[in-house]
Amino acid sequence: MIHARELTKRYGQTTVVDRLSFEVRPGRVTGFLGPNGAGKSTTMRMMLGLSRPTAGEVLVDGRPYQRLKEPLRTIGALLDAKSFHGGRTARGHLLYLAQSNRIPESRVREVLGLTGLESVADQRAGTFSLGMGGRLGIAAALLGDPGIVLLDEPVNGLDPEGVLWIRNLMKDLAAEGRTVFVSSHLMSELALTAEHLIVIGRGRLLADTSVTEFIDANSRSFVRIRTPEPERMREALSTAGVRVLTGEDGALEAVGAQASAIGELISAHGITVHEVSTQSASLEEAFMRFTAGAVEYRGLENGALAHRRKTEDGA
Ligand SMILES: Nc1ncnc2c1ncn2[C@@H]1O[C@H](COP(=O)(O)OP(=O)(O)OP(=O)(O)O)[C@@H](O)[C@H]1O
């Protein structure tokens, strides 16, 4: 269990984490969602005692990280997939960590197996791909068999096989009763793994809710209708109490209605239609709308998202 209470971090005049209060419970994957720069990494660093809160506190199993006796046995973390000494072998890196936390050597063999690294265990970690580095980071996080696992953007840069592996691993760890806290700036990624969500924007708590509730509350679905008789269609929909909008290409959008009901309406009025299709806003769109007040976004040609943070100097 992780417990943040009024957790705050300021750098000079800038408040990066702003009075965050939430709990992360065991037995489920909790997603930590927020646009780039929202304060996720800073929050996770405070959980791990790597950064000191300006105000408030964050407790790990009831204590601040600094007061945990053998921290690796309580909380394991992957913050940066390349946070190891490149000259050491994977096994050497894990043995070093194990010794400093009184963890038996047999556990090193176990985590090498668990993360599929046995065959490369004696290679220098500096030669590892991003995916293998990620696996080594996870092996280190699991070394102390901790009840709490923190993962900061674990799928970044991974190939599809690696992404699938991490998703399943997180679900398995939660099913074993562990607390799994994973950050991402992508709603679509967390929708596949997380059961619960903590959403932040500009350091503030925006939502603490189940993934299903978040999606239901924030995604807009409508039935798109293309017809050569838009006025008759619009009138039939309005009479039936359905809200109608006009799309960019002139098609009608029946908001919150089922395609089956629209089909019956069309048939009853004998209206000619060329298209009736259900449209749902993507999770990413829902998330962008939700965090719109916290960040300014602009779309890129390749569909990726870029953002412009409203910083103090407006840069
Ligand atoms: N040491 C620091 N000094 C000053 N500002 C910092 C420092 N560390 C982080 N920040 C700022 O704090 C804000 C939040 O950063 P943080 O890395 O916590 O966000 P994030 O949600 O993890 O973003 P990302 O998804 O990009 O990793 C950013 O504006 C960042 O520039």
Specify the oligomeric state. Answer: single chain
The average pLDDT value, as a whole number, equals 87
Topology-level CATH name of the largest domain: Rossmann fold
Bound molecule types = adenosine-5'-triphosphate
Q: Separation of termini?
A: 38 Å
Structural class: alpha/beta
Q: How does the major sheet shape up? A: 6 strands, mixed
* H/I helix tally: 11
Strand proportion, as a percent range, falls in 25-35%
Tell me the domain tally.
2
Strand order of the largest sheet: 5-6-7-3-8-9
The CATH architecture of the largest domain comes to 3-Layer(aba) Sandwich
- Give helix % range: 25-40%
Dominant shape: elongated
Estimated radius of gyration:
24 Å
Protein name: ATP-binding cassette domain-containing protein
Family: Belongs to the ABC transporter superfamily.
InterPro entries: AAA+_ATPase, ABC_transporter-like_ATP-bd, P-loop_NTPase
Keywords: ATP-binding, Nucleotide-binding, Transport
Layout of strands and helices, then pairs:
Blueprint: E1 2-11, E2 14-24, E3 28-33, H1 40-47, E4 55-60, H2 71-74, E5 75-78, H3 90-100, H4 105-114, H5 130-142, E6 148-152, H6 160-175, E7 179-184, H7 187-193, E8 196-201, E9 204-210, H8 211-218, E10 221-226, H9 230-239, E11 243-246, E12 252-255, H10 259-269, E13 275-280, H11 283-290, E14 296-299, E15 305-308
Parallel strand pairs: 3-7, 3-8, 5-6, 6-7
Antiparallel strand pairs: 1-2, 1-4, 8-9, 10-12, 10-13, 11-12, 14-15
Helix pairs in contact: 3-4, 4-5
Bound molecules: adenosine-5'-triphosphate (ATP).
